[in-house]
Fold:
Amino acid sequence: MEAATATARHVSDSAPARAWTWLRRNALMIYAGIAVAYMLIPIAIVGLFSFEKGTAQGEYWSDAFGQTAVNDSMIMSLELAALTMVVATAIGTLMALALVRYEFFGRRATNLLIILPMATPEIVIGAALLSLFITYSFDLGFTTLFIAHVMFSISFVVVVVRSRLIGFDRSIEEAAADLGATPFATFRLVTLPLLAPGILAAALLAFALSLDDFVISNFNSGTAVTFPLYIFGASLRGIPVQVNVLATMLFAVTVIAIALVLWQQRRAEQMASVQPEQEV
Amino acid sequence: MSAAESGSSNGNPTVELRDVSKRFGDFTAVDDLSLAIGEGEFFTLLGPSGCGKTTTLRMVAGFEEATEGQVLIDGADVVGLPPYKRPTNTVFQSYALFPHLSVADNVAFGLRRKKVDKKEADRRVGEELERVGLAREANRRPSQLSGGMQQRVALARALVNFPKVLLLDEPLGALDLKLRKGLQVQLKGIQRDVGITFVYVTHDQEEALTMSDRIAVMNQGRIEQVADPEDVYDKPASSFVAGFIGVSNLMPGTVKTGGQAGEIELDSGVTVKAPTDGLSAGERCQAVVRPEKLSIGEGGRGHPSVEGLVESSLYLGTSTQLIVKLPDEVRMTVLVPNADEAERQQLPGGGAKVKLSWAPDHMHLVRESREHSTDDKEDAT
Structure:
């Protein structure tokens, strides 16, 4: 680097040489800028479009909830995501506890199979669920969507919570028992608070996965219309600008949620660093 | 004050193990162990890793259940009782502090479980933090404290409950040497102060000798010897104890005549008069003489001596360490205090022929190590 700079200075008279030097110094920044832009431009465009001119600037933001169909689909998606989050997190957390803590028949197999729903193409899961629901003559609708969403979210919850459990110092729970805490009190006062960051991250992940799912939902929705399904349908005719407005709102909420998780995780890491260390 | 609360009034030992065994599958961690620990005693379980000392402690705490035998605390059988119903508290090797709670809340945890009155609990927590010198750290998180401080929080968290027995599982193991020495003294002082029975697990023989009232030396799930530190050091019951505590100076030999006025013939060819309690003629044994009790050259009248070659000489500051090889290839360590510089200059160097002598009552006979017999048993099965 220093050698390169020295050489560059040596011939710094010509304009092309100076440009080359500048490029060499800033290549990494330019590269990173392009990469970030590549990821963010589509989102930015949606935000930009939400301010599309109607009769007045920003009209669609003041009339964000003016389209009943958009609202209904959004409400259904949020309800579905919330319900999925609660149920999948509860089941997934307990599964992770069982898989890490207890020795039982089929544990290894379960540990392996739990990854399968994540690795299977969504289209396959969607089709498989549909044929299942038809075979057992379920009425397609909100319930089948809910079952499908919980099904594919659980794996993610298990994997996230499990990774947190594996690094868990069991002697902390022994200490609680030693100090007179019953198994339930130990779980409530020690295990749960220490797992909370992992569980929170898993819950947010389940929420996001459910909210944004299109492929599997498309198979199993029947007459129910979630936000992604609505957008897909509307895109054939022309998307109401309100969609862009709501999408931008959603994006803002997601960014805040992710920031919260990161903050929470950093706190958790500070907590986890309680290890015997040498005194200075 | 706490001694009165924790003390046993019925004359029973505070902790008693009767024929306790613990097996994990095929592995026997603790093998038919019996032990009685008195009230207010600082009792140490000492042994190499895997000797069963931690398992023994965990059976008293209730984290492990004995496969066979009885565990009694204050005369009451606690087998089958979960840890949260036992009158014991534990200081863990990893401290196991609750990372999400403040130091004060960590210490108050046990009292809150027992629904101790809030005011009373606050007072006791304050007192205990004062005792371990952490009153000013009450509102900090464990992660903000140094290792030594965390260790003291763990101690306060256990002591605040006035347990009948405090169990300590290598509590100083993770600390550096200098800090460990300081905490040893502090810990011993606290124990004397509160009068609670301490059961202390360690593999550090020096730590055990410094702190304990009595030491149980463990090997392969069994107790080799239970005695006070002086006896464990000066009168080891077996070659294992002799080898594990201090520097091992073991001279193998054979008993010639048994009895109080017995004689043994060392393998190096020297016959020594020694009381051979419990040993009979023809039996193999080993003679132990501690390095600081050996002297160079002909000793006083009636002092036995052996001849050997100096292999190495090492200056250690307060003393000089010589390694002397006897004719039967046994190596003896000799510590000569560096009291006089002129005297030190005259010490024999490497390759020199020397005589080692010792006062007769500084030699102690032990049976051949049991290690061999267990090895044989394993071969047979």
User: Anything to note?
Assistant: Chain B has eleven helices and 20 strands. The interface with chain A takes residues 61-63, 82-84, 88-90, 92-100, 109-110, 113-114, 141-143, 146-151, 157-158, 161, 174-176, 179 of chain B (CB under 8 Å). The domain at 247-376 of chain B is CATH 2.40.50.100 (OB fold (Dihydrolipoamide Acetyltransferase, E2P)).
